[in-house]
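Retro notes - structure team

What went well: the batch runner handled both jobs without manual restarts.
What didn't: labels got mixed up in the shared folder, which is why I'm recording both outputs here explicitly, each with its sequence directly above its tokens.

Job 1
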Amino acid sequence: MPCPTTLQYPNSRSQRMNRPSPLQSRAVDDAPLPTTAPHAPIVPLPHNAPLRIKELLPMQIEAVIAGDARLIIPVGTCEQHGPHLPLGTATFIAERLADDLSAEYGVLRAPTVEFGVNVDTERGFTGNASVRKKTLHRMLNDLLDSWEATGFREFILLTAHGHDPHQEALATVITANARVRVVDIFAVNLSELLEGQTEAMHGDEVETSIMLYLAPQMVHQELARDYMMSREELRRYRRGSLKVPGNSAGSIGRPSLATVEKGRILYERIRSRISDRIFLAPAMAG
């Protein structure tokens, strides 16, 4: 039974840029579709747009799978990220990246899994909603089993939530034969792009900057409050053995240093590195 793979970052962005996009090969114009294509859909596919399966007809999905049997699955959370960011911050970031990669490479994109395994806190935050690790694991097993039975041969799980139990739920998903690739968005090295941190934290300089770039209307920067942890405290926090302290506003890091331009640079770095390491690899045949 295949399990999720551990992946490395290749250095050649030029390889990705030179690789023909599946969308380019399926460009839609006024000409009729070739009758020789056994899986050509009667209804044209969206052009230069995300291929969200909940918005497509079965015949359109079948046509895409015939050429590329991969499925991108964004996995989010409903979790506080400090007083200045929405509870869906990790979800919005994962969804946007999934949409951009789907549009660029012509890979199908699943509906978002909206809930994940949250970090415990010393005080309650209204609206937080979490599932247990085994619940998320079982749900993903069921979903991937259903999709594999319809022809998908590779699953790409995208998440912007670094809590270890959450990551473990994704990393232990099992399929019959399909390949599973788990992508931790914030595992990309961003250290030289940051001013007050050396790595991504929570509701911090990284997430706040990216949200200022992607959805500025959702960010209330005037409410941002900095709270730093030592590296050992951060490790324990991610593992789940240390709760978010009661004297923290809920965020960890330096969100006060976030800017729109920094968010653009961070997002493009993440998109580029994940694009290189995931989408340069050949898709598994259907």
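Job 2
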Amino acid sequence: MTKQERPHNHNPHNHNPSHDHRRIISVVLPVYKNKDSLLNLRERLTTTLNRAKIQHELVFVQDACPLDSVLVLEKNPPPDREQDIKIIRLPQNRGQHQALIKGLATANGNYFVTMDADLQDRPEDLPRLYNEITSRNVACVFAGRTGTYQQSSRHLTSRVFKALHSTIIGVPQNAGAFLIVNKLLRDFIVKAAPHVEKPHIVSLIGVSRLPTISIPIERDIREKGVSAYSGWGRLKLGVRSILTAVSLRRQGRKLRELYLKTKE
């Protein structure tokens, strides 16, 4: 880990190992040019999880953002100085999914959430995801995004890519990066990712063949800023995720034998 990648924790007392066994959920958030939403996001996450009495940590992973968006969090620390917050600055832009995997590798929870940091994925839906994964015999619960949160053309291309993804890798048709996984699946994602040229979290979840479900969750319209992905960028990301899914399907058995200790 380079110096730039070293996680920063607002409260040095949070390194006390006696705190770790009480941390239930780690929320991993990729940051890139979205500083306007970060303070509100932190507040809504904290309020929601505290109200639900769910111990948690927040892991912000800045993907080499030229605006240093996470600086707003450091300049405005939370009122509760005991709150577990990590900030990781990646020195090179690696893309959303590699940033998420970096955050997952650093996180210390029993369950792990990944979600966007622009407030389109609503913090208030986290308790529902947590209740679903703890009450069912599954390794992952996807938030199947619903609602009119993007242009019709983008929505159509997204549905096409997700349908192809589902057919190739076996995840639910509305599976996206707003999800919660258990520790077994988190460990598999982190260990298998280095074997993939362009790792994609949803593809890695599918190739694990661990049980997953999807529940409908309405997604909000972006209030501030614009997507970091242009139309062309979204197309490239979609094609890359399909190619990753095809590649992973071929090597899936080997990865499962190495990192899940399964016998097929």
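One thing worth noting from job 2: The first helix runs from residue 35 to 51.
We'll revisit the folder naming next retro.
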